[in-house]
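Record format v2
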Amino acid sequence: MNFKEIFKFELQYRSRRPANYIYFLILFALSIALAAMGTKGFGDLSVQVKANAPLLIDRQMGILTMPMMLLVSAIMGVAVIRDYEHRMEQLLFSTPITKLDYLLGRFFGSFVVMILVSMAIPLGSILGEIVSSKPASEMLALSPWNHVRAFFYIVVPNTFFLSALFFSSGVLTKKMAVIYTQGIVLLIFFALLDEGAIEVAKNQKLSTLFDFFMVQLLNLKAQFWSAAEINESTIPIDGAILINRGIYVGTGVLALVYAYFRFNFSINSIQKKVKSHDA
Amino acid sequence: MNLKINNLTKTYSNGTKALSQVSLEISSGMFGLLGPNGAGKSSLMRTLVTLQEADQGMVSLGEIDVLQNKDETRKHIGYLPQEFGLYPKISAEVLLNHFASLKGIKGKTERMSIVQDLLQKVNLYDHRKKNLGGFSGGMKQRFGIAQALIGNPKLIIVDEPTAGLDPEERNRFHNILAELGNDAIIVLSTHIVEDVKDLCTDMAILDKGKIVLRGNPLQIIEDTKGKIWEKSLDKSEIEKEKLKHNVISERLYNGKTVIRINTDSFPGDDFHEVEADLEDVYFSHLKINNSQPS
């Protein structure tokens, strides 16, 4: 069983790469800025709604997974590509490791790093709320739980889906350029979907089921809520939200399974030198 | 234990016939696989270490069916590929330790001691804390052999290990190979005749995917004794000589061109007999193979 060794090595290797710390700081800074600024301006909410109402914290988390997408492509894409870029593949694949240990070790090792980086979002959001210059009358008392909750049901599933997708593309194409392109295309697609600019089967309700950044979906959930309800209640994680989360987590799992079956240790006779994108 | 290769054939998707009915039986000791670039050596090596599929044929290592039972095979092999790299931002000690763990050495103390021993053996102990990105070609190659030796594999495959090394590094590398002893089967693939002459007791020449000669290097040289003739001449005369004789090699010596030919009887002219070396044998066989339709 070599999973543990590969997993451990991945963490050890990543912990020495400055890029990962820089990614964390970028996301942390963006989160602080967005939280301090607030997202109340998005959608027409009553003036009585407080700047840090649970709905707004949730939406903020969804929005922050947009810039995070590019970080996920950099961190997760390289997990397997790195072995080809550094031309380590023949040395590694002639050791008695199994395909499953190798892929799972690389995936989970990198995913843990990715989750640690994504924790910049709730940490930044909390700090942003604290340093916000908004008058106390427009704010609710700080509730770290609301940030943690939003992190677990919005940021973590989004991170998992993107991680699984970019990791799998890396495994299958072995090209960072494909992954970056895919990241940008997906970012635009999800942003348009979230804006309501494109609709799945011309049906707004159906579209929100696929709303990856969840702003529309959350707005829809709370559309008949009073300002007081928005201030006091968290958005229940049920119905469309549960389906939405299920779609993305499920698709992520499928991407990983597909990559597992398509990947093999065989070396192509014609090998090209590739540029390093080490992270 | 023997390595048996039977009728191994491989054609690439672009039509290149890399291996054509290769059959070899190799026992423990240092075996030299000699051949020009593109002869199919690396294809053969990659097939032996389970990294490439063959179209036809059989390979067995002792009782293990190499082509069918890849996972089991990989427990018993050490491989130094022709082209490889190492993670640049990590130390030799850390990476070698990682390889030892992947190769099944689970006890931490045992692993540490194996890693230290191997680093000593390949003369990298003083550089063990250094990042691999700063290693020279020779140091990288020595690291490569160290990882191939982890866990005393029964079959060690070394593909073009001295290509690109300066003479001093090459010498050092030869010494390491020579110390490996005779317990394991060591297959050394190379296009450098000297490598085989210096190290191997058994050898084969591979050209265009086919085995064209097989035997003990000294015996092979012995068989060619009295057939190699040399003449120094003007560059312009070479083409004329090529029409008359079986010219196996031409080189420059002291500004003049020296040609060697392979023939059973005295060729006349200004030829004089020279002591045959492995290079003459090698070039003779490549010449014969090239003159045949492939």
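The CA atoms of residues 138 and 169 of chain B lie 6 Å apart.
Chain B is about 35% helix and 30% strand.
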